[in-house]
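hey can u check if this looks right to u? its 446 residues, i copy pasted from the old doc so theres a chance i mangled smth
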Amino acid sequence: MKKTSFHQSIILSFLLLSCAALTAQAEEALSYRRNSLATLLVYHPEDEFGPEIYKAFDSLPIPDKYDDHSIEGYSIIDNSTIWGVQRKDSGYYKATYGHQLTAAELQKNAKFTEDLLNREEMGKQMVAKWFGLSGNNVEDATFNTELIQARGQYNANDVDVALALQTTRGLASLSDAGEELLGQTFVLVNDITYVTAEQEAQAAKAAMNVIGGLLDAFTGGNSGRQVAQAAGAIADSFTGFKVKTHSYLYQLEWNDSIAAIFYQFHYTGKPDPAKIQAFLDDKTTYRLKYVAHEYEFDKKSVLKGKYSRTELVRTICARSMDKNIVALAKQYEDFKVKTPVYKVLTNERGKVEGYAAKIGMKEGITEGSKFQVVQRIQDPETGKTKYKYVATVKAKKGSIWDNRYNAVLEEADGATLPYTTFTKTAGGEILPGMLLIEGKYRKVTE
């Protein structure tokens, strides 16, 4: 894994902490609690397109419906330096042309990657980022709750650890922050391989040569070989590049027991070398767990417009990863995307005709997409967050925003829309700032 040392990363990662927090809150001035996400790439430098896939991945931002929780210096897992391709002993199995990964291979990959991330203390680094660990050395290092306050829209007293630990209400606020923010922190590891036109052409020519040879054996002529040559020429003329993307999702483990260890033995808002050193030395408390896998390969994917080789790779990789993120959000409830209602749409007479939200095809919206509209409420007694059901909406036909990577360049239908329009199918009054959540969400109360 490409990395800096943990102590170096403390210095590098948190110099930009304030800027990252401000960026995360900027969208449409509508603040809401996003899940937090870091992405990594399994890099195959042995592949012809491996370096270009790495460059494409490295240039793509974290999807804007998630807060960026990337760790400075951690972006790739280099296949050539960590393990060999198709090694069956410690085995990271690679999807190649003509080889689909089996269920057993996928499980082995997922477990191996989980062990690797935890060996590299990725979970601890994510906790350190949440609590703003900063300082030039152990002697002057401290934690703070500025990022938690910014992303969670808490006031300073709500997440003042020293104050919170003195009251039941304060502990509830810290617990809420942990459940809503730290417990919703993810790492997505993308293993991207590809199929090129040349690979498909070679397979097509090999198949036609076999058929041609069999035909000639029966007829005693050479017409079969002529057919095979013609088919090979057609196959060679085909151009295309398609990626196979296996995405493995990992979640930061955070619960009351882990929080108690952190707040009692590690957190300090003023220099305390013993607590900081105890945090750095802890090898077992802060871990990532594997939760889900998704695979995307579109045999029929065709891009309109003119692309350079580099931009072609970037566009296809971006769309492939987006599809997997959408599928993972549907598969794993904690990973669901929450999106605010951007505005209520009315006609000239003031009649409500729909509701706008800044999501679209990139997030998998189709004419059949249905969402719960919920209101986030803070319980006045416990201080914890609740989600109350308000209404149900569906995407309006012909009004779905195509916000996929480079959709405008391709002049795709819906690419120039500013948002997707939804219509209400059930429920009460919908107001700007209420949240859309696709499907049913277990935390919603009626």
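The CA atoms of residues 56 and 314 lie 5 Å apart.
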